[in-house]
Amino acid sequence: MTQAISRQELLIFTISRLLEGCRHVAVGASSPIPGAGALLCQARARQRMFVTVLGSTRHNFTTNGGVELFDMAAQGRVDAFFLGGGQIDGHANINLVGAGGAYPQTQVRWPGSFGSAYLYYLVPRVILFREEHSRRVMVPQVDFISAPGPRNDGVYRPGGPIGLLTNLCWFAFDRQRLRFRLDSVHPGHSVEEVRDNTGFDFDCPTNVPETPVPDPAILELIRTRIARAIGETYPRFVKQVFPAAA
Amino acid sequence: MTEHQWLEPTVDSLARLVPHGAMVAVPADYSGIAMELTRALIRAGVRDLHLVAVPVTGLQGEMLIGAGCVKTIETSAVTLGEYGTAVRFLDALKNGRIAIKDATCPAIHAALQAGQKDIPFMPLRGIIGSDLLAKRGDWKVIENPFATGPDPIVLLPALKPDIAIFHAPYADADGNVFIGRRRELVTMAQASRTTLVTVEEVRDDVDLMSSEETAAGALPALYVGAVAVAPRGAWPLNLWDRYPVDEAHIRQYCEMARSPEGFQRYLADVVYPRHAAE
Description:
The complex is a heterodimer. By secondary structure, chain A is α/β, with parallel strands linked by helices.
């Protein structure tokens, strides 16, 4: 018997759909859900697919140190990556540094920009991923730009965001209009709820479809093989979300 | 046992080789952190360090900052991951006790590569349009001189730390250090004037340079200024997959470090007792 689909399972499945066709997906620090999504996509892929999970010994193809993943990205050898942000605005600028007050003595300080100010320009399929969907995260304008959204300003930029995935919805990013468009709302949530919790303007079609859910076979795969695989790097996450696989 | 000129008798004597004001490069948690040496640096009372995190730091940077050893931190992030918040770092930053040079990971790697070659700068893609660039007076933008049209690109000045510091499983009989696939340790060591390493053990039965298999994972002794033995020297962090993180201890640290008094208690309980025993 199948239990109800959890929030994490829906996100893992959605990420795996967004990664279809990739040859190499890399996953950065503190990213169990993107990691599981990438491993699910790999498990279902017909073509050969590589997944690099930062912090994993097994899912790691680098032998030239921390710099190699960045070099691979510049070479076009990383098709997809994930970035988040303490703040994300409607032009897809992301802030991983801090909010309020005057830099560097901001009222709130986050860990820092990591590789965002580079990978955001070079990886063609960047998925912005932030579970919390609230007005304090989805702001009209970020207080600090760790990495800017695409600007069509002549700066070398083969990469950029394809969209923003949250607990409520999937926004696609329109590279022509440089704006987000609400593409689907997760089951149990509404366009009004998305609007109420988003601080920036976005395009919204008259009918917004519901985000597709995984079928029972895929759900079983997530709960067994994928949960065990991501548990190598994120044992605490698996213990919490997939206790049967831990 | 063979006499080893490069071997310091204790981690505390190794720590005394780090002068006040030194620019010190340290790796990210996944590469092997010299935590016992970090505690020894705090015991030695080293001051005014310019800490370069390659490319991010965690408990090591947090503790050195909390203990007042750091003047400037250059990093792409300070994070204790899922265990908690780096409160001593946040407190020092908010109260202006440290300066920060916010970076992005590949910029630190690339600036060290310039240091490795001893060339003045390295160009790097990305970064343009970010506030990192706006806040960093030392990063410049030029037009790519080889392009036919406009092509702005960032130049990063070379990073040449005084000292690189890390922890590794072992040194061989000649002081070559086994670093496995952690090639960022080689970059750090070659860009830095010297390198101080702590190891789990010295293996007099091993010559890393004698075969292709082991030489490929070695940092040659030429780059290493001194070594000290520190069993479980990365504790409470992990050393690669050799031993795991002591989660309970890090959670205890996070709990205590929430207040300056709690952090001082942590230093008294965990960092200073070893000194008294010597």
